[in-house]
Structure formats: structure tokens, C-alpha cells
């Protein structure tokens, strides 16, 4: 039986969750946002350059959207409150350029235009990569991924590997298979294989695989699959759907350990 009590979530989490739910009812594509990172290993510049790409929001840590979307982690506390955290989750390939960039510089900004309700969220924070426990990079300059597991967890005994596997099982069969490809962003010519020969779909896990070859492919995909957990320190919401437009900024104050909310000129 659970004895945990859900921590109070900052006000922006409720606002973001309800806005996302309203937007997804109108348009499922509004689940993606732009994620900006710093790249310090580019031949184009001595100074870090910005990199930005779209990623899919996979909820907050331990957030369940559907029945049966399970893991060994508890879903609710003894009072029936959801045991989710205020940390956003995305999924990626641990071998990807963005994973390498995050290992070197975790500072990120997200820009999310939720068009159905005319809200822009910008979230500033630090993003941490959680690879497979047995992940080893194919590159000699392998990044190591610092992951403050305890600070990011919604409960004291949170099982991060169970959360990673839960997210893998929720992906589409096509997306699961994409983690079996050669290193993302590497040259197809230098690899020498044919992308058409790679698996197109993969099942949820090793137990569901048919035959030894598919079992190996699922193991390979799970090895490359990583979570990225984003710890926000500032959230800026512009509401263009209201007249007059409004703008609210929440800032985490490390001195008081509290979120401060302020209305700004849009
Ligand atoms: C709508 C959309 C959603 C995407 N979602 C993800 C995602 O959740 N994770 C991811 O790694 N790449 C995602 N991608 C691909 C990335 O935008 C990017 O092309 C790829 O990950 C390589 O990025 P990198 O070179 O910065 O690592 C998505 C692309 C689009 C267009």
C-alpha cells in the first residue's frame, strides 16, 4: 500500500496540462514543440551555436493518459492524487546529436504554439538524458549522461528504468523500429547498408517479439532509446486568445524554493 503524498505542483503545470488537453481535442499534431539546445562541437563556429528541432511531448514524469499504460511505479498516493512531477518528458535516441549536446550543456528552451487555444508557452530549463542502463556509445568521444535521478523523481523510490520502458512500449511500432537504425545524422554512404532493409515495425518488448532476429532488434532499439527529462526554471505564457492579450511569467526562486508568478506586458 502506498504511503506517499503527492507534492504540490506549480500553477503553470495545471495551466499547461489543461491547455494541452484542450488543444489535442482539436488537433493531435499540436503535441509537438520546438526544443533549442547549444552545440559546442560544430565546425561552423568557435562559440556555441543554437540548434532547434521539433520533438513530441510525452507528458510529465509518471503521467498516465490511458488505462493499461502501466509500470511498477505507483500512479496515485494514498489520498488518490496523481503522483506526477513538474518535469516534462521527451524521448530520443541516445546516439543523436541532441543527446550529445545536452550531455555537454543541459540548458534548453522550449517554444510551444498551441494554436487551437492561441497560447504560446516558452519554458526555460535544464534537460537530462536517461539512457539504457547498459548504453554504450559507438563513438570514441562517448558522452556520459549526468542524471540527477533523485531530484527529478516524483516519489522517493521512483524506478526510472520502469518509466523508460513504459515510454518505449507506448511508442508506435514504426517509431520503436527507428531506434534500430545506424547512428542518427551519420552518413548512409559511409554506413554502406540500405535503409529499406531495416525493420519497419517492432513490437512493444522482447516478450512480444517473434523469433530470435526480432528479439535482437527489440533489444537493440531499447538500448538506443532514451528519455529526456526537463526541469524548468522559468515559464512564459502568452495568451493571444484573450482581449486584451495577457502574458504571465512563473520563475523558480532558488532562495525561497518557491515559484513566483508575475503578470507582464505581452
Ligand atoms: C513533428 C515532429 C516530431 C518529432 N519528434 C521527435 C522526438 O520526439 N524525438 C526526437 O528525437 N526527434 C523527433 N523529431 C525529429 C527531430 O526533429 C530531428 O529531426 C531529429 O531528432 C534529429 O535531431 P538532432 O540532430 O538535433 O539530434 C521530430 C520531428 C518532427 C517533425
Salient structural properties:
single chain, 266 residues, alpha+beta, Pnp Oxidase, Chain A, eight-stranded antiparallel beta sheet, 7 helices, binds flavin mononucleotide, Split_barrel_FMN-bd, Pyridoxamine 5'-phosphate oxidase-domain-containing protein, Pyridox_Oxase_Alr4036_FMN-bd
In the CATH hierarchy, the third-tier topology is known as Pnp Oxidase, Chain A
Tell me the name of the CATH homologous superfamily: Electron Transport, Fmn-binding Protein, Chain A
| Outline type | globular
CATH hierarchy class name: Mainly Beta
Report the order of strands and helices.
HEEEHEEHHHHHEEE
3D structure, described in words:
This is Pyridoxamine 5'-phosphate oxidase-domain-containing protein. With about 270 residues, the protein is of the alpha+beta class. It contains seven helices and eight strands; from the N terminus they run H-E-E-E-H-E-E-H-H-H-H-H-E-E-E. Strands 1, 2, 3, 4, 5, 6, 7 and 8 form an eight-stranded antiparallel β-sheet that branches. The radius of gyration is 20 Å and the shape is globular. Flavin mononucleotide binds next to strand 2, strand 3 and helix 2.
Task: Report a brief summary of the structure.
This is Pyridoxamine 5'-phosphate oxidase-domain-containing protein. The chain has seven helices and eight strands; from the N terminus they run H-E-E-E-H-E-E-H-H-H-H-H-E-E-E. With 266 residues, the chain is an alpha+beta fold.
Amino acid at each position: 500500500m502506498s504511503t506517499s503524498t503527492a507534492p504540490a505542483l506549480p500553477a503553470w503545470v495545471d495551466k499547461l496540462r489543461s491547455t494541452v488537453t484542450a488543444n489535442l481535442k482539436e488537433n493531435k499534431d499540436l503535441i509537438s514543440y520546438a526544443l533549442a539546445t547549444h552545440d559546442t562541437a560544430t565546425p561552423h563556429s568557435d562559440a556555441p551555436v543554437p540548434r532547434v528541432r521539433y520533438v513530441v511531448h510525452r507528458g510529465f514524469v509518471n503521467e498516465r493518459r490511458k488505462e493499461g499504460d502501466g509500470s511498477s511505479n505507483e500512479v496515485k498516493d494514498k489520498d488518490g492524487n496523481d503522483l506526477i512531477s513538474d518535469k516534462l518528458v521527451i524521448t530520443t535516441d541516445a546516439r543523436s546529436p541532441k543527446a550529445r549536446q545536452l550531455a555537454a550543456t543541459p540548458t534548453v528552451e522550449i517554444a510551444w504554439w498551441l494554436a487551437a487555444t492561441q497560447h504560446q508557452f516558452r519554458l526555460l530549463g535544464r534537460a537530462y538524458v536517461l539512457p539504457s542502463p547498459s548504453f554504450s556509445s559507438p563513438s570514441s568521444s562517448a558522452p556520459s549522461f549526468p542524471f540527477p535521478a533523485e531530484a527529478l523523481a516524483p516519489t522517493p523510490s521512483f524506478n526510472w528504468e520502469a518509466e523508460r520502458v513504459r515510454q518505449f512500449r507506448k511508442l508506435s511500432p514504426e517509431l520503436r523500429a527507428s531506434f534500430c537504425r545506424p547512428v542518427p545524422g551519420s552518413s548512409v554512404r559511409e554506413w554502406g547498408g540500405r535503409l529499406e532493409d531495416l525493420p519497419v515495425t517492432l513490437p512493444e518488448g522482447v516478450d512480444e517479439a517473434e523469433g530470435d532476429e526480432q528479439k535482437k532488434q527489440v533489444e537493440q532499439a531499447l538500448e538506443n532509446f532514451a528519455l529526456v527529462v526537463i526541469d524548468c526554471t522559468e515559464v512564459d505564457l502568452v495568451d493571444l486568445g484573450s482581449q486584451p492579450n495577457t502574458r504571465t511569467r512563473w520563475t523558480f526562486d532558488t532562495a525561497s524554493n518557491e515559484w513566483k508568478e508575475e503578470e507582464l506586458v505581452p
